[in-house]
Structure formats: C-alpha cells, structure tokens
Write a structure and sequence with these properties.
Number of helices: 14
Radius of gyration: 23 Å
Largest sheet: 4 strands, antiparallel
Shape: globular
Structural class: alpha+beta
C-alpha cells in the first residue's frame, strides 16, 4: 500500500483553511455562527493555522439535541470554527482514502447517493430474475454501527495509508472531539436515557465522521468481493445487500461477514438479516425494491406524514420558517418521483396546507 507523508504541511495552511471555510459555509451562510466567523475571517484563520502548526488545537464544546423524526436520536453539532478545520482536513485526506473505496458503495460519496444505489440494485434484480439459478438476496445491517465502532479501529484504518504522525494526531483529536462518550449499548430502547459507553462510537454528521465510516468499512467491501467472491454486493453505509447463486451460498456468506465484522472491526450484524429469492421485494435504504417496482416502506410513509404534520404545526406556531418546512416537503417529493408512489405523492400535496395561527389581538389596556 502506498504511504503518504507531509500531509499535515498541506493541511495547516491559510489557503487550505480558507477552502475549508468555503466548504463548511455551503448553504449556511446566514447562520449566526457562520456570520460571526465571516466577520473575523482573516483573524480566525490565522489563529487556527497557528494552533494547528504548534499542535495546541483542541475542539470546542459541542452542542447536542434530540431529533424525533424519523426516529428518536441524538444529534451533536460542532462550533463552526471546528467544522472549518474538519473540512480543511477532508480536502487533504479525501483524495487519498477515496482511491480504495468500493465502486458500489453509495453512502456519503460525491456523485453517488441513495437513488443511484437503489437503481443499481434493481438493475441487478432485473438481470437475474429469469436466470435458471436460484439467485438469493441477503439483506444485512450492522448493529448500531455509528455508536459501536471502536475508536482504536477508526484510528487503525485511517492510519493505514498515512506516514504522518502529525496528521494522525489531528485525526485522533478530531475523533475524540471534546472528550465525551459517543457509544451506546447494543440493547438500547431509549437513546436519551441510555448510559454512554466510552471508547466506541463517533460523532455523527461531520465530514470527518462520514469519511471515517467509509474508511472503516472499506476492508469489509474488499473481503466480500475478493475473498468471499460474492457476485453482487452493494452498500450504503452500514446498509448492505448481497446476491448469491443459491440460498446456501448466501447464508454462508452472511455468516462469514458477521465473523469478519466481529474479529476485524469489533462490530456485528443485527437481528434483522433477511434472505429472499430474487423475485421478492427487499428493503434497501428505506425503500422496498423489486425487479420492476420501487416503493416506500410503510414505516417510512408514516414517518413522512408525521414529519410533515410536525412541520405544519411548527410553522403555524412561528417556530419554523417557510424555507425550512418547504425544503422538507420538496425533499420528500423529490424522493417519491423516483418511485412507484404516485398516490402517496398526490396525498402529501393535498394535505400540505400551511396556515399561520393569528396573533392575539392587542387590548386597549395593553397600550
């Protein structure tokens, strides 16, 4: 494997941090933290370049809130200055790591995405449905991947192509963030009440964590294709589908994959693994995919309706602006137009009526 050195010198420069600032502010230019950073742009970049060059940088405290749609989950977010630095690191590291990514990995990779992943899986199913072989689909998910992957595994895989101790120092600093624990127990009925587990998990949402997730699972991709030689395999982050020539081969591959995850990455499959014949519908990236149809799964449909009702209520109460609620609606309609869900799309359009609650009238005594 080719080793890369002197990356830290490319990373900790004024020009690279400015490029990181441009990436971090995309679609967020008028948020308070971005406006403050922009108002002191040169001062902040020079300060952060010095902190990086002297290796005195440490991430600021993160914010945290609960998101209830589509399911209850913990969302963490970093100060904008830290996001700028992470984006600057991403600019240097992404070209290196992306060279080894599997061609049918579709999560958080520019130019790919859930729609292309679903369409590719459907094209394979169409190609194989009339084959004389007993082609079988296996649906696999990693149990709580983002909250269970060990920190030492993250650093080990990130460090494979790097021969730069300073860059590894930064990556460990970024992964550990402000020192809080990100891990969750495997059995976790309520994420808000669960006790956090140190030494495992990652801060979901940053470019560094998205890149790390792909880097950690790249050895699994190559193991499935090169060692197990599974003919058809596709992945969207921890959501995976394999297609094998027989049911027995499919089940054997699933067992080998689970063993690899446990021994190599400190992870395991969850109990939602499915094995089906090629002509049946299979769930992938929140959609039900069949050789000639793509539908939204029922639970996702319910979540979409609840989310839109939530948006309508928050808009009526002046707690969400029109731009936000409209973007949610448009994102759903954009997803539905690529599925066989015309009736659902029409229903959402008919029900999405925004109304503001009238403010209370002033009484004469209030003046």
């Amino acid at each position: 494997m080719e080793k890369y050195s002197h990356l830290y010198e490319q990373f900790a420069t004024y020009d690279n941090l400015y490029d990181g600032y441009l990436l971090a502010r995309e679609n967020k230019r008028f948020r308070e933290g971005v406006l403050d950073y922009s108002a002191h742009l040169e001062e902040y970049i020079i300060e952060d370049v010095n902190r990086l060059q002297w290796m005195t940088y440490s991430p600021g405290p993160m914010g945290e809130f609960m998101e209830y749609f589509p399911k209850k989950r913990i969302i963490c977010y970093q100060p904008f200055r830290d996001r700028v630095i992470n984006c600057a690191a991403y600019n240097v590291l992404w070209p290196i790591y992306s060279k080894s990514f599997y061609e049918h990995s579709y999560g958080s990779i520019p130019g790919r995405g859930p729609l292309l992943g679903v369409q590719k899986l459907q094209s394979w199913m169409q190609h194989l449905e009339n084959s004389p072989k007993d082609w079988t689909i296996g649906k696999l998910d990693i149990a709580k991947f983002f909250f269970r992957v060990p920190v030492d595994v993250q650093l080990r895989e990130l460090g494979r192509p790097l021969a730069d101790p300073k860059m590894m120092w930064f990556l460990e600093t970024a992964i550990r963030c402000d020192g809080r624990a990100f891990g969750l127990p495997l059995e976790c009925p309520d994420v808000e009440l669960a006790e956090r587990v140190p030494g495992i998990g990652m801060q979901v949402g940053s470019l560094i964590s998205q890149m790390t997730a792909n880097v950690v699972l790249t050895p699994l991709d190559h193991y499935i294709k090169r060692v197990l030689k599974v003919p058809y395999y596709i992945r969207y982050m921890d959501d995976m589908v394999i297609i094998a020539p027989s049911r027995s081969e499919c089940k054997a591959a699933i067992n080998e994959i689970d063993a690899f995850l446990k021994s190599r990455l400190g992870l395991q499959l969850n109990n939602k693994t499915q094995v089906k014949s090629i002509g049946n519908r299979i769930e992938f990236i929140g959609m039900m995919v069949a050789p000639h149809q793509i539908h939204i799964r029922k639970s996702t449909t319910l979540q979409m309706k609840r989310k839109l009702e939530y948006c309508k209520q928050k808009y009526a109460d002046n707690k969400k602006d029109f731009r936000y609620v409209h973007s949610v609606y448009e994102s759903y309609q954009g997803m539905l137009k690529h599925t066989d869900s015309t009736n659902l799309s029409q229903k959402l359009m008919e029900d999405f009526v925004l109304v503001k609650h009238k403010p209370e009238e002033y009484k004469e005594d209030d003046w």
